[in-house]
Write a structure and sequence with these properties.
333 residues; 47% helix; alpha/beta; 2 domains
């Protein structure tokens, strides 16, 4: 059974909504919303880069949409939807944006011909977890700053991230950014157009994602895209479980090795301590026996002094002195 609206986070639907000539106004609205641009700097038109002009990087083939924005500055935008937090994802984003910047120059062109590039990435995961400090908000913008005074500069490469899990579900969305986050998170769960999205461009985005408007081929492509995500999630989950299992096994083995080593060390220490205790007891017994044979009875204070002595050399010295001493006091000097 088809849902009312298809999931805009899947590869196929995201491309359909934001990577086709038919729905370019949605892409313009998405960029203006996420970049929070004022009227003087709003994007008014976009030109989709043809495949031959896109950076050819095998590791980046899953990038969803590469677009060139035709605004007053001629800025390029690399727009991407990412569902899974794969290893090195942040580096991949930087590489993709840098590649879009460097591949602008053709033979004979000079550096002043380069236009700025802004990477816009929508993440269905927390790239910067909320439990870690410093806190990074749901919509974050990144550019270079001078480290001492904080002055902005070298703004040719900029990055914008929308982390969908950080959306505040405790209240209805208010701003354009919150409404786009709500759209991406909840579209495939909606059974009607909610009041908060009953305005353009969001109602247009929902209409474009309406499953009933898909052809059979488009629906099949959508299902395959969803299955690919599930397969990749399953592979990551399996790899995580295997890693945890291996980690536990290695941890147990390492713990056993450390335990044995610690046991040997503690055994040696306990053996030395037990030997010391036995030596002290033997010397005290020998000292008491010698004093008894000489007819002396140590006073309670003298006996306490002998019992509390933990030094073998001192007890041996007292034992030797007791042979020739004339009193107990002289023996225990």
């Amino acid at each position: 059974m088809r849902t009312l609206f298809a999931d805009p986070k899947t590869d196929f639907v995201f491309k359909k909504l934001f990577g086709t000539e038919e729905h370019k106004p949605l892409l313009v609205a998405l960029l203006n919303g996420l970049l929070e641009l004022d009227e003087a700097h709003r994007v008014v038109e976009v030109e989709l880069l043809p495949p031959e002009q896109r950076p050819v990087v095998q590791e980046l083939m899953s990038s969803i949409v590469d677009v060139k924005c035709v605004d007053a500055r001629g800025t390029h935008y690399v727009v991407e939807m990412q569902v899974l937090n794969v290893e090195g994802f942040d580096k991949r984003v930087v590489y993709n944006v840098a590649k879009a910047y460097t591949t602008q120059l053709k033979r004979g062109q000079k550096y002043p011909d380069l236009d700025d590039v802004i990477g816009v990435t929508i993440c269905d995961f927390e790239l910067w977890p909320r439990r870690e400090a410093p806190h990074v908000p749901m919509l974050s913008r990144w550019c270079m700053r001078e480290q001492h005074g904080g002055a902005r500069g070298l703004g040719q490469l900029q990055f914008v991230f929308l982390e969908l899990p950080k959306y505040d579900t405790s209240r209805p969305p208010r701003t354009a950014v919150e409404k786009w986050a709500y759209f991406f998170r909840e579209a495939d769960n909606l059974e009607m157009v909610p009041e908060v999205l009953a305005e353009r461009p969001f109602v247009d985005a929902l209409e474009a994602a309406r499953a009933a408007g898909f052809t059979e081929d488009e629906w099949d492509a959508y299902i395959r895209a969803g299955m690919a995500i599930q397969d990749e999630r399953g592979a990551l989950s399996l790899a995580t479980k295997q890693g945890l299992q291996q980690g536990r096994q290695e941890g147990r083995q390492e713990g056993l090795r450390q335990g044995l080593q610690q046991g040997r060390q503690e055994g040696k220490q306990e053996g030395l301590q037990e030997g010391l205790r036995q030596g002290l007891r033997a010397l005290r017994s020998a000292l008491y026996e010698l004093l008894r044979q000489r007819g002396w009875a140590p006073s309670p204070q003298e006996r306490t002094r002998v019992e509390h002595c933990e030094d073998l050399d001192t007890l041996q010295r007292w034992l030797a002195q007791a042979v020739t001493a004339t009193t107990v006091t002289e023996a225990l000097r």
